[in-house]
Amino acid sequence: MSQSERLLQACRREPVDKTPVWLMRQAGRYMKEYWTFRDQYDFLDMVKTPEVAAQITMQPVNAYDVDAAIIFQDLLPILEPMGLELEYAKGVGPVIHNPIRSKADVDALRIQPAEEAMGFSRDAIQLTLELLEGRIPLIGFAGAPFTLACYAIEGGASRSYTFAKGLMYGEPLVWHRLMEKLSGAVADLLLLQVNAGAQVAQVFDSWIGALSPADYREYVLPHTRRAIEMVKAKSDVPVIHFGTGTAGILSLLKEAGGDVIGVDWRVDLAEAWDGLGDDVGVQGNLDPVILFAPWQEIEKQTARILDSVKGRNGHIFNLGHGILQQTPVEHVRQLVDFVHSYTE
Q1: Which residue from 30, 178, 278, 281 has the least number of CB within 10 angstroms?
Q2: Which candidate in 13, 25, 122, 226 is catalytic?
Q3: What is the pLDDT of residues 131-170, one digit of tens each?
Q4: Residue 29 a catalytic site member
């Protein structure tokens, strides 16, 4: 089996020669190569400069034997063409300077075709595919409607989501209108990436663990499902649906859609898959902090995860969330090689 097919076959729950592995945020701040660009460019400029984004995407591909590349971009630039003022503030992270707080704010959001609004994503994917030369597949991605809504309403990171939940509970019609706009934009971006050549699409719902199962079903599920169904209606690429803090709503994530359900480290992977059923693949789910431990501990924890789902078709090894800054690069390399050698 060629490495170019390994991840795609796992997405289709077909037998593979060894477990495919890639890592969320595998291109980024923990690599010294990344800083050759970061020292010259603002973060948003890196995302919006296709030549730079393609080079950063390739850095982990050139450094490790990963089974997929994921395009270097971010969840939030999709909000800019809608009229939101986005800044990545040093030491703070993303900030929305004109957050959504009212019906008028939602009504004012502009809907532009991704071809016009997010052309840099298309161009970065096309450039990356030239550099990959078919070695491994390229993953495109977008933030899920709920996570985007939270950023847009809160104006940045939050622990309590007071403004977002306040709008959701207090003005549900306005909330659903916002989610309709966001789900359409998410689907349009993913289709732009797929049409540019991305072979897999991942939906990131990074903040979805803030909701109860009942609230997820009422306020989020229809919109995430709409976005995924729009992608599936116009393409045949596999969709990976990932969220954090989802142990209590994994069955609902499956209901919302996805060929593969991403699982964080807060739940046993085999138990999660038992609950989901064998008609979907699973991705995960090593705690990113374990990569700071001695290698013997990393090996033990990784083997435990791999053993727990041994013999089941459809497992993609990954972390339970993105690689953390300061992660030892050598541990990343050892992890990728170990997953391959242990499962061969």
Answers
A1: 278
A2: 25
A3: 999 999 999 999 999 999 999 999 999 999 999 999 999 9
A4: yes
Interval 297-315: pLDDT, tens = 999 999 999 999 999 999 9
User: CA–CA separation, 257 vs 260, rounded Å?
Assistant: 9
3-class secondary-structure state, position 158:
coil
Catalytic residue among 17, 74, 123, 215: 74
Are the C-beta atoms of 74 and 147 separated by less than 8 Å? no
All residues at 6 or more sequence positions from 170 whose CB lies less than 8 Å from its CB, including other chains = none
CATH code of the domain made up of 77-259: 3.20.20.210
Check residue 91 and give its pLDDT: 83
CA torsion through residues 249, 250, 256, 261, sign: positive
Nearest to 52 by CA among 68, 67, 39, 66: 39
Looking from the CA of 252 toward its CB, the CA atoms found within 13 Å total: 23
Q: In what order do the strands lie in the sheet with 281-286?
A: 69-70, 138-143, 200-205, 239-243, 260-262, 281-286, 315-319
How does pLDDT run across 220-236, given as a tens digit for each residue? 999 999 999 999 999 99
Tokens of 103: 């019906």
Tell me the pairing of strands 86-89 and 315-319. unpaired
Coil, helix or strand at residue 106: helix
Burial class (CB within 10 angstroms; exposed 0-12, middle 13-18, buried 19+) of 91:
exposed
Taking the domains of the chain in order of start, what are their residue ranges? 77-259
Helices (H) and strands (E) in the chain, counts: 16, 9
User: Tokens 């992660």 map to which residue?
Assistant: 327
Which residue in the list 12, 29, 217, 333 is annotated as catalytic?
29
Q: Which residue in this structure is represented by tokens 């593979």?
A: 16
**283 forms bridges with which residues in the sheet?**
262, 316
Point out the catalytic residue in the list 34, 64, 151, 216: 151
Asked about 333 being catalytic, the answer comes back as no
| 3-state secondary structure (DSSP) of residue 312 | coil
